[in-house]
Write a structure and sequence with these properties.
Blueprint (H helix, E strand, L loop, with lengths): L3 E5 L20 E2 L2 E2 H11 L4 E6 L4 H6 L4 H7 L9 H9 L1 E6 L6 H7 L1 H4 L4 E4 L3 E4 L6 H12 L2 E7 L9 E9 L2 E9 L10 E9 L3 H6 L11 H11 L2 E5 L3 E4 L3 H16 L4
Parallel strand pairs: 1-4, 1-6, 4-5, 8-12
Antiparallel strand pairs: 2-3, 6-11, 7-13, 8-11, 9-10, 9-11, 10-12
């Protein structure tokens, strides 16, 4: 079983300014639950109860969210409002939360490397909270990937097909078919132009990584936008060993964009809260 999951939550969320001027983007609510809580619940469902948060300046609200609020709990104790906290209480009880600060925003690869002291020498999950993944009819995306890891014992990235016009927003993979829905990666490119993209299989914010990725990242020079790209490190790992791309079962909403955030909110409200009378 993979027991740890890394959450890179140090990003600034500029696409949601001014809302994110003083509030972490990961705390933006989908109906009444912050994005980061959806990700943590997904990790815990997958057996990854040790949640390692790579935070940054202005992110204290995330740490506070996964802690007891004694004043609030005392204020609403015995009232009907107490039930509203049952979900987060369960998360706090089941999870262990550790944190480290990323001092500079130098790319996703750098954020992963910053979390190494919290992970150690073991395989781990990664959740990017901007991507809300839901699978109402079965196990979560991360749980699906954890089951695959048990079988293949290598790094796994979640992918989905996107239009050619969208490939320049993603890491894009290509390779040989291992079996239906599973590709052995031979090429991985960060945000290619539509003309240069090796396929339309785009990497989304769910990963299972083996611990050798840390040394690979350490030796990976800055790439696209002058940042240390996880995509580049995974390309090296694919060449030296094996990386699989998994077309997951379920839905994914890009909550790092305003349209995706609105779509996610509408979907969650319709399917989990019901229509107003």
């Amino acid at each position: 079983m993979i027991g740890k999951c890394l959450f890179p939550v140090a990003g600034s969320g500029t696409r949601f300014l001014p809302a994110t001027k003083s509030m972490p983007k990961e705390m933006l609510p989908i109906v009444n639950k912050p994005l980061v809580q959806y990700g943590v619940e997904e990790a815990i469902e997958a057996g990854m109860t040790n949640c390692a948060l790579v935070t940054g300046r202005g992110k204290r609200a995330i740490a506070d969210h996964f802690d007891i609020s004694y004043e609030l709990e005392h204020q609403i104790a015995g009232s009907s409002k107490e039930d509203y906290l049952s979900g987060i209480r369960d998360v706090i009880d089941r999870g262990v939360f550790t944190m480290v600060r990323q001092r500079a925003m130098l790319g996703l690869g750098h954020a992963i490397l910053t979390g190494e002291p919290l992970i150690g020498d073991q395989p781990f999950g990664v959740v990017l909270s901007d991507d809300l993944c839901l699978n109402p009819d079965g196990p979560s995306v991360l749980a699906q990937m954890a089951a695959l890891y048990e079988e293949y014992q290598c790094s796994i990235v979640a992918v989905q097909e996107v239009s050619k016009e969208e490939v320049d927003q993603y890491g894009v993979v290509a390779g040989t078919t291992e079996r239906d829905g599973l590709t052995r990666v031979s090429e991985m490119v960060e945000k290619p132009s539509p003309e240069a993209a090796p396929s339309n299989l785009a990497v989304i914010g769910r990963y299972i990584l083996t611990p050798d990725i840390f040394d690979i990242i350490r030796n990976t020079p800055p790439g696209k936008n002058g940042e240390v790209q996880l995509t580049d490190a995974l390309q090296t790992q694919a060449q030296e060993g094996r990386v699989l791309a998994y077309q997951f079962k379920g839905l994914r909403f890009d909550c790092g964009s305003v349209p995706g955030f609105v779509d996610a909110t509408q979907y969650v409200f319709d399917h989990y809260y019901g229509q107003p009378e």
